[in-house]
Design goal:
By secondary structure, the protein is α+β, with helices and mostly antiparallel strands. The chain has two domains: 3-80 and 118-301, 2-Layer Sandwich (BirA Bifunctional Protein, domain 2); 85-114, no CATH class. It contains eleven helices and twelve strands. It has helices spanning 3-13, 30-47, 63-68, 71-74, 89-100, 124-130, 173-193, 209-221, 250-255, 274-285, 294-301, and strands at 17-19, 26-28, 53-57, 60-62, 81-85, 109-116, 139-148, 161-171, 199-202, 225-230, 239-246, 266-273. It starts with a helix and ends with a helix. This is Amino acid--[acyl-carrier-protein] ligase. GO terms for molecular function: ligase activity. Its EC number is 6.2.1.n2. It is an enzyme of class 6 (ligase).
C-alpha cells in the first residue's frame, strides 16, 4: 500500500484526523490540536525576548494586498480567491434549479475583495508600510495564520488548509540575514529536542511555468530559501516542516516599507508548518501521545 495513504488511513482509524470527502481538508482531533498548541508554545519560547509584537491573521486577506504580493505571477496554480453570490431574486431561483438538476450553479458567483491567504507573512507587510519608516532596529513580529494552497493530495502532510506560525524580521540586509541564520540553528535544536530525524537543505518555491524554472534556479543559486526536511510519508522524499527565507528587498519595494534611512526594507521569515510538525511527531513517536518518549513529552508538556 502507498505509504502516504497508509499513514492517512492510520490517522483516520485512530481518529487523529477526520475525513471530509475532499483531499487535503480534514477535521482535527483535540489531541492533534493539543500537540500543535504545545509546539507553538515551544516555538514562541525561542523568540520571546526578541519580538516587537505579535499578530494573528484570519485565513483571508484583501484582494488588493494579495495582488501587490505578486503571488499570481509566480504561483497561480496554488492560489484561491473568495467568490460569492451577487445575483437578484430571479438569479437565485435559477441557481436553485441548477442545483436541483445537478448542473453548474456558480455562474452568478462573483469575485469578492477577499483572497485566501497563501503565506502567513503577507498580511503583515501592508500594516508595517502604513506606519511609515521603521525604527533603527526594524521590526520583529511573531504571527500565525491559516493558509490555503490549491494542491489536493492524499499525502496528509500536503493539506490545502493549514496553519503557519512565523517569525518575521524586517529591516536591513544584515539584520534579516543574521535572523535567518540564527533560526536555522534554533530550528535544528528544536528538532533534536523533539527527537525527529531532520536535515536542512537549500530549496526553491514551486514557481509556475517555463519562466518559473529560471526563477527557481536563481533562488537556489542565491540560497534565498532553506528548508528543514523531516521524513513523514517518505524517507526518500522528506517533507519540509520549517522554512528559512530571505526575500531581499522585494516586499519592501512592493509595499513601500522603508528603513529609517528611507531605503527599501529587507525581509526574512522563519515558518513552521504546524500540521506537518504534528504529523511528524505522530509518525515517529506513535499515535498515542501518552506513550511518546519522556524527552519529547518534557519538551512539549514540561
Amino acid at each position: 500500500m502507498d505509504a502516504q495513504i497508509s499513514f492517512l488511513d492510520q490517522l483516520f482509524s485512530a481518529r487523529v484526523l477526520h475525513e471530509s470527502g475532499v483531499d487535503g481538508i480534514y477535521g482535527r482531533s483535540a489531541e492533534f490540536e493539543d500537540v500543535i498548541a504545545r509546539f507553538e508554545t515551544l516555538a514562541l519560547f525561542y523568540g520571546k525576548d526578541e519580538i516587537s509584537e505579535a499578530m494573528v491573521f484570519p485565513p483571508g486577506m484583501s484582494m488588493q494586498d494579495f495582488e501587490t504580493s505578486g503571488y499570481m505571477k509566480s504561483f497561480p496554480q496554488l492560489a484561491g480567491t473568495v467568490h460569492a453570490f451577487c445575483g437578484n431574486d430571479h438569479d437565485h431561483m435559477g441557481l436553485l434549479q441548477c442545483m436541483a438538476a445537478g448542473e453548474d450553479w456558480s455562474k452568478d458567483q462573483k469575485r469578492t475583495q477577499v483572497a485566501l491567504t497563501p503565506a502567513a507573512c503577507y498580511p503583515l507587510y501592508p500594516i508595517l508600510a502604513k506606519r511609515g519608516a521603521l525604527p533603527a532596529d526594524g521590526a520583529y513580529v511573531a504571527l500565525q495564520s491559516y493558509c490555503f494552497r490549491h494542491e489536493p493530495s492524499r499525502d496528509p502532510a500536503r493539506m490545502q488548509m493549514f496553519r503557519q506560525r512565523e517569525y518575521v524580521r524586517v529591516g536591513s540586509e544584515d539584520q534579516t540575514m543574521a535572523f535567518r541564520e540564527l533560526w536555522k540553528e534554533r530550528g535544528q535544536d528544536m528538532m533534536k529536542r523533539l527527537q525527529l530525524p531532520h536535515h536542512v537543505d537549500v530549496a526553491n518555491d514551486p514557481f509556475f511555468g517555463r519562466a518559473g524554472k529560471i526563477m527557481a534556479s536563481g533562488q537556489r543559486e542565491q540560497e534565498l530559501k532553506f528548508e528543514m526536511l523531516v521524513p513523514i510519508t517518505s524517507e526518500e522524499k522528506p517533507t519540509a516542516c520549517m522554512s528559512f527565507n530571505y526575500h531581499m528587498d522585494n516586499f519592501g519595494k512592493a509595499w513601500d516599507i522603508r528603513q529609517a534611512d528611507g531605503s527599501p526594507a529587507h525581509t526574512a521569515c522563519v515558518g513552521f508548518g504546524l500540521e506537518r510538525l504534528a504529523l511528524a511527531l505522530f509518525r515517529h513517536h506513535g499515535l498515542d501521545t501518552s506513550r511518546w518518549p519522556d524527552g519529547v513529552r518534557s519538551a512539549l508538556w514540561g
